[in-house]
Amino acid sequence: MGVTSPGAAPGITVRAGVLEEYRTAPVVRSRALPPTPPGHTLIRTLAAPISRLDLLCASGRAYLGAPALPYVPGVQGVGAVVGPAGDAGGLVWFRTWAGMAPGDGALSEVVAVPDEDVFPVVNDVDPGLLAALGLSAVAALMAMTWTGGLVAGESVLVLGGGGVVGQSAIQLARARGVKRVVALCRSDRSMAAARSLGADCVQMRDDESPAELAARINELSSDPFDLVLDGLWGEPAAAAMLCLRPRGRLVNLGATAGDQAVFASSVVRGGARQILGYSNNDLSREQLLAALDEIGELAAAGRLEVAFERVPLDRLPEAWSAQKTGTASARQVVTFGP
């Protein structure tokens, strides 16, 4: 599907964020226009989020090993296909393996991407919003539906309602016709965000046991939950297991609250409750394309949104540091344009 060329045009440069040292922010540099090998698509980047995976790879401590320096980070982005005459074509979402395999990522004005990692999306969606949603919204959707078997009329408990996955899950569950969504949140800001999206909320406390937390969650719902979307694990997951109906499902896709969740065997066996794991890496291209179609259409229709901040490329080092230290008020999305 891509426009191919034997190599880069001589003398043409593009600007990109380049990681030159581990555990530092990328710096903005001018680089030669990348070549477009056969089987690749040349894309003019419009927006690219700074993700947790980008930060992990740039630390030099990722499980796949330290990437070779220098390289351009950015494991996902939204852009326009570059035509033979340099004109911009249709809108696409794309992924890269920057930091995990040789090659550069999305934090560049122009990037060459293997055709199988390029996905056409609806043209009337805001590129910045779609970039902010990206793989986080894909995870929320597919963890609930493909892995969790969500159907209309069920009730959902979202562990971690303030992040992009949680915000997406609340809206995607409502779009799928669920009966009720309850979100477990840490901060006042997260509580406000989740409530604004239509969820009932419970705020976590540091001084309570899983049983006490479960009791407070259950106060909000007259019936046990059918599905738990869990990006936290740890004690929140132990509490959530006490809130599931018999044969209810807990789908885990993260462990930001701890690597271990402790609950009695009887909690699982007594109601034949299910604990399921989810990873975006298990999706086929067809599944990812279908998920992006649904996400793009809902976003274009104003039914799926997420808090994010548009940051011009010149402010990449500042935005990177804010995302890394947790001082950013929302997901940082680097934008490219005049």
Automatic annotation (TrEMBL):
GO terms for molecular function: oxidoreductase activity. SMART domains: PKS_ER. Gene3D superfamilies: Medium-chain alcohol dehydrogenases, catalytic domain, NAD(P)-binding Rossmann-like Domain. It holds the Pfam family ADH_zinc_N. Residues 17-334 form the Enoyl reductase (ER) domain. SUPFAM superfamilies: GroES-like, NAD(P)-binding Rossmann-fold domains. PANTHER family: SHORT-CHAIN DEHYDROGENASE/REDUCTASE, ZINC-CONTAINING ALCOHOL DEHYDROGENASE. This is Zinc-binding alcohol dehydrogenase family protein. It comes from Streptomyces phaeolivaceus.
